[in-house]
Amino acid sequence: MRKKALLAVFTAGALAGGLLSTKAFAQVEGELSPEEEMKLVQEFNRMLAEGINPGEIWYEVGKEAIKKYNLDKCDLGLGPGVFKGAAAQLPRYFPDAKRVMDLETRVGWCLQQHAGMTQEQVLKFVRQCWGKSGNCVSEYDGIIMYLTMESNGYKINVNLRDPNVKRMYDIGKQIYYTRLGPWDFNCATCHAGKQEVRIRATRLWSMDRPGEVGKAVSIFPKYLVRWGLPMSMHYRYAECIRQMRWPEFIPHSDLGVALSTYLYGSANGTEINAPGIGR
Amino acid sequence: MKKVLILVGIASLLTGAVVEAQQRKAQSQRQQQPAVKHEEVIQVLKSGLSTDPRFAWKIEQDEAQRICSQYPSREEMPGQAIQKVIQLSQAEIRYPQWGIYMGDWKEGQKIVRTPRGGRFASYGFSDKPTDKGGNCYACHLIEKGVPGGTMGPNLYQYGKRWGITKENMNSPEAVEKIRAVYNIVYNSWSAFPCSSMPRFGYHGNLSPEDVANIVAFLLHPESPVNK
């Protein structure tokens, strides 16, 4: 069953990748022509209708990568190698690292501890498919996909009673409203308000409309049809921050952790359902 | 860190009464104050952004931004804060060196349409640090039939709505209207404090001449906006 689905998914992925470029890994271009845009939307609708989510390929990639990089020793908070439901209780405070960490930051820490990577190497590993389109398959995206999907069906449960976690939640909340940069944006510029608004054709979720933050974060990593890869949360942060015209986001930083703590903390109670799919 | 704490401890013993009074005052203030210090927030924020010296200026928060960051929306801002932001913003408006004039709407259209400008990352993407643009369609509907966002108001027939015609476009009244729209595009917070709209001219994303051209695109009777 799974094999058949994977086969279908591979074909779909190749199609999606091929839409934008004939090269294997194209650099992402900022703008698409209306024809390309139309093709993408049609492709996206077809995948939705058929229940195909190419993002699931990365689950298998991640399963292999976890063995390869010794991540079965990685403790996400429920014990080394215990992954069922582990992502749902993140971010949390880790005494061994003396830091609140979200899933991606913790994986980065584990890669340093158990795979002998330096911080530099981890960042390179994380960003290997950033800005690329057309079936760039990264082991990192696989690992994040695998670990998240192991929590599918579990409800997000960030422990805000832990003062360390609560502190990051409060910092994240204030960052969410911090107007900064040459374009004066904050997160709330796009993701707040009762009224529903669009940026071009994209409908924006809002922190102020009940349930929407949960709906938004519980489907990450989210497969993007236009780039042919699953977008992890930290890649999402980097892309938001690029659009906000702030300097480039550094994955696994406390900024990322603070945002995750605020977003996932606000999404407590929502069932994880990865991967999502988007245009 | 510890030393500082000890020093503070000794100091507080010496001036016990004063400190106590201050603590009481601080406690009553704390109820309105956020749970974490502003400096701590900014520190965490900056720790997650590239330290490339070319972009360091982007994350120096100015006073108006600091005020706006305290309120989730303008409805919740006290009048005093609104006044302050307007005052700061109006003081910063600069005009082209030959004063207010109707710019070139065709040049304005180019800036309005391009999503580029200031949007730079080292991974992927062909944006350059020197690109400039307004990306106005992200938030506004402007020309008929061109898709746009709904975050900002619909600007279709904006010049018509201001009553600008071929006959009156050079009158003193029209120049004042051009100035009013110029002020909004140059520094939106001078008219709508803490608006979502970037202060394009204030930050130097666009030059005064660029802003004049955009205003012409919005107001000129021959611009497609007013057809």
Task: Give structural attributes.
heterodimer; A: 279 residues; mainly alpha; Cytochrome Bc1 Complex, Chain D, domain 2; 3-stranded mixed β-sheet; 46% helix; globular; disordered N terminus; B: mainly alpha; 9 helices; 43% helix
Q: CATH superfamily assignment of the largest domain in chain B? A: Cytochrome c-like domain
In angstroms, what is the radius of gyration of chain B? 23 Å
Q: Which whole number gives the mean pLDDT of chain A?
A: 89
Q: What is the 3D shape of chain B? A: globular
Q: Could you say what the CATH architecture of the largest domain in chain B is?
A: Orthogonal Bundle
CATH class annotation of the largest domain in chain B: Mainly Alpha
Q: Could you name the CATH topology of chain A?
A: Cytochrome Bc1 Complex, Chain D, domain 2
Strand-pairing-aware structural class of chain A? mainly alpha
Radius of gyration of chain A: 18 Å
Largest interface: A-B, 52 and 57 residues
DSSP, total strands of chain A: 9
Q: Based on the coordinates given, report the CATH architecture of chain A.
A: Orthogonal Bundle
CATH topology of the largest domain in chain B: Cytochrome Bc1 Complex, Chain D, domain 2
| Assembly state of the chains shown | heterodimer
Q: Profile the largest sheet of chain A.
A: 3 strands, mixed
Secondary-structure element string of chain A: HEHHEEHHEHHHEEHEEHHE
Total strand segments of chain B: 0
Shape of chain A: globular
- Helix/strand class of chain B: mainly alpha
Number of helices of chain A: 11
Strand sequence of the main sheet of chain A, in spatial order?
A: 8-7-9
